[in-house]
Amino acid sequence: MIHFPILRWGQEYKSLELAKVEHFLTGEPVAEVSQANPGIVARDLRKGAGRARDVLREIPCADLLAMVKKGGELFKSADLPLGDGVQTPDDFVRQQSATTGLPEHLCRMNMGKLEYVLTHLDDVLRSLTRRLDYDILTRGYGEEDGVMRSYQATTPVLGMVLPSNSPGVHSLWLPIIPLQIGLVLKPGPQEPWTPWRMAQAFFRAGVPREAIALYPGLGEVGAAVLNNSPRSLIFGGTATVEQYAANPGVQVHGPGFSKILIGDDVVDDWERYLDLMVESVAINSGRGCINCSGIWASRHTREIAEAVAERIAPIGPLPPDDPKAELAAFTVPGQAPAISADIDNALKEDGVEEVSARHQDGGRLVSMERCDYLRPTVVHCGSPDAAMAKKEYMYPFVTVVECPQDKMIRAIGTTLVATGLTGDPAFSRALLDARNIDRLNLGPVPTTRLNWLQPHEGNIVDFLFRPRAFQQAS
Amino acid sequence: MTTENSTAETRAAQARTALDAWVREIVEWHFNPDTGCPFWLDWAREAGWDPRREVHGFDDLAKFPHFQDEKLRGGPVRRWVPRAYADRPTFVFETGGTTGIPKSRVAQEDFRIDYELFSETLPDEHFPKGSNWLMLGPSGPRRLRLAVEHLAQHRGGICFCVDLDPRWVIKLIKKGWMEHLKAYQDHVIDQAITVLSAGHDIRCLFSTPKLLEALANRLEADGSCLKDTGITGIFAGGTEFTPQWNRFAHEELLDGIYMTPTYGNTLMGLAGSPPSGPENGYKITYYAPQPRAVLQVVDPDDADRVVGYGETGRVMLTTLTKEFFVPRFQERDEGEREPPCEQYPWDGVSGVRPFSRLASATTVGVY
Q: What global pTM score does this model have?
């Protein structure tokens, strides 16, 4: 069986505690994963975090950039070490699908997304650093256009507590190595594949092994990564977001509550945007934080809900290797039934109706022997005050909410991506000024279509480097 | 059959004979109106059978229902004191207590006897007689603090202690106040560092895995290490004592310091463990201080069935002392049943961890 060791600054370490990762359909063990203990994380970070940055600082940023770009190609196309053997790209897709429940073609799509980001990383970094000379980051200071600039790294390494649900989120940590900051990765329990393969691709491309650590394990290992890294990213639910919201050392990536907001000026032409709405809700099996979970408009909301439901509600489970498979399985026992029960409960409120139910024989929950599926769900809410209007789940689920335009921005709550469909300058201005919206698309851009040159939930460069005053006597 | 096997079987049979005899003596004691405690005498009256007539050996204890530790909540605590011992000085030790009324256990000499027995398992070269101890564990109404202090005194040393309130720790975890939790742990380690640096010639330490790790980390951050403190022997306990942690400690923290893992709680004595290391995959197997306590590994769905060797089950405890009788208490832990060994000719349990069906409700603190 494939064994994932712990990587202690690049050195493999087999734990006495092994967790089996199983195929979501057959229950067959796919891999065993060495489980770290929190003490190992604390100890390694104390002893090796500084060294991780030091070895990276010995290599110019531009060279590191070339290495990770090469790593991107290797990640997509090379046979890379895994267990006692090698992993082909096709193996990777099959294995990732087997443990996460994501259809294989979506795994391949995410793989392509990561490769795209890596091959365009110089553009991404140029944008995120606002064309700063990388040597200034390395040296800590330097003149630019006759002005002294100084940036101090806030941490030698970035800790990351990664999720299992959507491999695309790994794109967020890809720019770190070229910034000469080490990586401390705690993979999601069902998704050790991407962090491992990416690390191997980076190593083969020349990134020093001492710069990357990988600690699979349970929640306490994630806590150890957070507690011992001066700067961390964590992915989690609303509770996680609330727990770390006030911690400046932790950048939290939670549910997106991403939305499409249709202005009064275009809402009568809503049918023109149907494809955009469907793509935003259903692509990548609705798993991402950038998937749309709310469509808001002041009128035509019933017709919109009905039209979206007609398109996505018939989608059902297909085998993971079927290229037409659009739904990912829920592989954690009890998770899908709990979500379904939560929806049933929220549907009890007046003015809330599950429009998709009419298109689904047998209901939304499809239970199989070892996994469950939730079929796409469209709910109409007659008022933004309905509790259902604030719901988001990890599958194609969307509420279509009737809300006057002038109350919309205040009522939507925190929104990671908002697509504003409007040509109204006043509404556009209000959307631009809305501080509860992070990424804003004005015009017909699906919420899921990201411009990688733009910051996502905060600029990672600003998180890792602080600008400061610096003067040097001549 | 080899001579070795034969000897082992003979020793196991002798241990079993001794256990059966001890069970008869204990049952006679606890259910005799002149010596027993009000709780068990009342219980027998209501149950309508006389254990003294019907219990002839350990297996007959199956006639008792599983002890429910909820019975230990609240007073009057005197109902647990055997009449024959009514005039002896009595301690009360508490367990839990984060919310509601804690469970209480009375004790007079038991904790001293248990730890004196345990003392016999400690190698003198690592736990030198006459040396001083640091008790880096819970204070307050806990058995552990007094027991470790007695252990130190029994071995001719003096025990230094820290203030550690585990109930506050659990509250911090439940509230999600992780910064406060870290600060509290630092506060505890500060106390330990102060004691260790004060010239008290401390050679022996009681600690839990988390606190030992925190102590080692602090020392290393200060440019020192556990060995530099002069500590040569560590008596450690806690259900987080996994083989992986045991290995990590031996390979990366202890630097040759001897450590003996133990398993125990307020209801039982102290289960010791034979040495573990790379030769046995750092597996820790605990053996109860039979006949004063018996650990069994039973089927969680049928606690009358002891699982086979190597199989997983729930830990079931029977405490058999003249101060305290607890039949067939199902612990909140699970593990694998292990065969007798040379040092302990009765069953043991390895891989002890929180019982998986209750694990989500269990909060494990800093200590």
A: 0.88
